[in-house]
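Figure 6 in text form: structure in, sequence out.
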């Protein structure tokens, strides 16, 4: 690791950038969309966004400037889908948390399973990325989730605890972060977890959080992600420990996203 070691990565949030346990809907466009989608969606999202539920768009990085311009002075927040694990350096194709902060990003997704899988990101890398965000005043949306193999072999909780603990070890007590439970088997498959299944895991994650900092069990926002659609969002978001959603495919259709957003307003 360049420029900082693991010890230096233990950081606290410099500013109070989010209310505890906010309800949120986060659109993760992944590598989809174009300028036309930004220009079509953002004004409609801006009209709908209100203070009860945070609405966040995470477009591909090349569109962050345009999304920031369009979201300007609206209730819509925006963020990146990833961030580098160092502050600067010869890292072709990467960007730092400070750069995201300069662009007005409130959030950055870290540890998405697509990055863990395709880019071989380990728990340690994800933990450092989360810490870099917090140091820059960007709220990390930290993703954890088990594979179908993990679930079928009864290892869901052990896998999630390992992923989560690596991250929490680098957090100070006043750190502000969002957790997203995204079972890998539910991502892009149309096979969402049932509300009860997701609720069980969210309750487990709250117990794990509380082992580190008792208040975190109640105060941390935990989103569910994995085939959230307009027709299943309300039942998922009605669960007591699910605070909203991290939405992939359905977020590319502005009407679907707005419907999901309204479902979180309960
Ligand atoms: P889908 O909603 O397309 O299943 O994707 C979920 C996801 O990975 C969001 O980060």
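Output sequence:
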């Amino acid at each position: 690791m360049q420029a900082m070691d693991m010890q230096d990565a233990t950081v606290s949030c410099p500013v109070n950038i989010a209310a505890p346990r906010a309800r949120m809907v986060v659109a993760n466009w992944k590598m989809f969309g174009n300028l036309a989608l930004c220009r079509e969606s953002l004004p409609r999202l801006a009209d709908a966004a209100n203070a009860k539920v945070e609405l966040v768009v995470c477009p591909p990085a090349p569109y962050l400037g345009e999304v920031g311009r369009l979201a300007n002075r609206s209730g819509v927040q925006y963020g990146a889908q990833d961030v580098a694990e160092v502050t600067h350096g010869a890292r072709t194709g990467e960007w730092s948390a400070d750069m995201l902060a300069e662009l007005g990003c409130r959030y950055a997704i870290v540890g998405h399973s697509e990055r863990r899988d395709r880019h071989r990101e380990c728990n340690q890398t994800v933990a450092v990325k989360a810490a870099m965000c917090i140091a820059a005043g960007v709220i990390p949306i930290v993703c954890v989730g088990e594979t179908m193999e993990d679930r079928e072999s009864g290892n869901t909780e052990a896998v999630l605890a390992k992923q989560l603990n690596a991250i929490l070890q680098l957090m100070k007590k006043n750190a502000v972060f969002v957790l997203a439970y995204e079972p890998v088997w539910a991502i892009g498959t149309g096979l969402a977890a049932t509300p009860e299944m997701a609720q069980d895991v969210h309750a487990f994650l709250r117990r794990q959080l509380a082992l580190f900092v008792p208040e975190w069990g109640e105060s941390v926002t935990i989103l569910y992600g994995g085939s959230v659609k307009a027709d299943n969002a309300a039942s998922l978001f009605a669960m007591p420990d699910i605070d909203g959603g991290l939405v992939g495919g359905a977020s590319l259709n502005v009407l679907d996203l707005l419907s999901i957003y309204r479902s979180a307003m309960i």
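Caption detail: Residues 6-263 form a domain with the TIM Barrel fold (CATH 3.20.20.70).
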